[in-house]
Write a structure and sequence with these properties.
Shape: globular
Protein name: Aromatic compound degradation protein PaaI
CATH architecture: Roll
Number of helices: 4
Largest sheet: 6 strands, antiparallel
Number of domains: 1
GO molecular function: fatty acyl-CoA hydrolase activity
Keywords: Hydrolase
Organism: Amycolatopsis rifamycinica
Family: Belongs to the thioesterase PaaI family.
Length: 166
């Protein structure tokens, strides 16, 4: 029992087996795999379902993901939790790197530095995260990302490093 009487809200999240999707994706280049997800030919990652994230653009070395934040993503002080921006940035940084990889080659984030510039609130439209590869390498790749609101205001930035796995 709480001291606050507030309406209860709920959100239903559904997803498909991510291991089966990953198995199918292992036979595709990273660009083909990411485009298949963006186009709905393969299901997206379960974490994307939690945030309602969709892929707006997938090009070699650059991707764009979009969500429309709702209050289910709020922290205790009434704004979207910083982990949402961090998750979006980790996703676009990693997936931008993924678009440059051949079939059977993967990646993992080894470092992500996020800078938060403005608070994110629900009800103000979509936010867009863009990830771009800065430097490709045979063992390590570097990428950067940014999150912008519907008006184009910069909300957060990131730089990340991914290890390439063969």
């Amino acid at each position: 029992m709480t001291d606050v009487e507030a309406p209860v809200r709920s959100k239903t999240i559904t997803w498909q087996d991510p291991l089966e999707t990953a198995r199918l994706g292992a036979a595709m280049s990273g660009l083909e795999y990411m485009r298949a997800i963006a186009e709905g030919r393969l299901p997206g990652a379960p974490i994307a379902a939690h945030f309602g994230m969709r892929w707006e653009s997938v090009e070699p070395g650059e991707v764009v993901a979009v969500i429309e934040p709702d209050e289910s993503l709020y922290n205790p002080i009434g704004m979207v939790h910083g982990g949402v921006a961090a998750t979006m940035l980790d996703s676009v940084v990693g997936c931008a790197v993924h678009t440059t990889l051949p079939a059977g080659v993967g990646y993992a984030s080894v470092e992500l530095k996020v800078s938060y510039l403005r608070a994110i609130h629900a009800g103000r439209g979509e936010i867009r995260a863009t990830g771009r590869v800065v430097k490709e390498g045979s063992r390590i790749a570097f990428a950067e990302g940014e999150v912008r609101d519907a008006e184009g205001k910069l909300l957060a930035t990131a730089s990340g490093t991914c290890v390439i796995t063969r």
